[in-house]
Every structure is written in structure tokens, then in C-alpha cells.
Amino acid sequence: MNETTRHKLIWGWLRLFLGDAQVSLAATGVVTLLTIGLHPVTWAFAMAATTATLISRLLYHGRPDPNLERQKTQKSTGFKY
């Protein structure tokens, strides 16, 4: 596998899949909690969502894709109180 293909798989598809898994499993866990309460199925969804989050954090550390150009951000014009 060449470097470009490997990069696209790791920073593209895998990151997208892990993010989708986190959101889907967390939402399903909340719905399960609200409908059937603290059941082993609820814990399974919660643990699966946590696992997807941990894998994502270990792989990416919250960093953006290093091949993307960073855009200059506009300075904050926050309100002064």
C-alpha cells in the first residue's frame, strides 16, 4: 500500500467511521437508557461508544489532518464586560 492510500485510509475513512460510531452508539445508548433503563444492553452501547472514543483519541489526539493547509483565523472580537 502506498503512502497516499494509507494516509487517506487513516485520516479519512477510519476517522469518519470512528466519529460515526461514536455518535450512533452514544445516541442509541441514551435512547436505550430512556426506554429500558439500566439493562446490560444499555451498558454494551455505552462501552462500545467509549471504546470508539478511546481508539479515536489514541490514534489522532484531536489533531487535524497534517496534509491540510491551515487557514488563518480571524482574531476574536469578543465582548468586553
Give structural notes.
The chain is an all-alpha fold and 81 residues long. The protein has a domain of 43 residues. It is built from two helices and no strands. It is flat, with a radius of gyration of 18 Å. It starts with a helix and ends in a 21-residue tail after the last helix.
**Count the helices. How many?**
2
| Rg from alpha-carbon coordinates | 18 Å
What structural class do the secondary elements suggest?
mainly alpha
Distance N to C terminus: 56 Å
Uncertain regions spanning at least 5 consecutive residues? none
Helix content percent band? 55-70%
What is the general shape?
A: flat
Mean pLDDT across all residues, rounded? 81
- Bin the strand percentage: under 5%
Can you summarize the main beta sheet? Answer: none
Write the element-wise H/E pattern from the N-terminal end onward: HH
Q: How many beta-strand runs?
A: 0
Keywords:
single chain, 81 residues, mainly alpha, 2 helices
Layout of strands and helices, then pairs:
Elements: H1 3-36, H2 40-60
Helix pairs in contact: 1-2
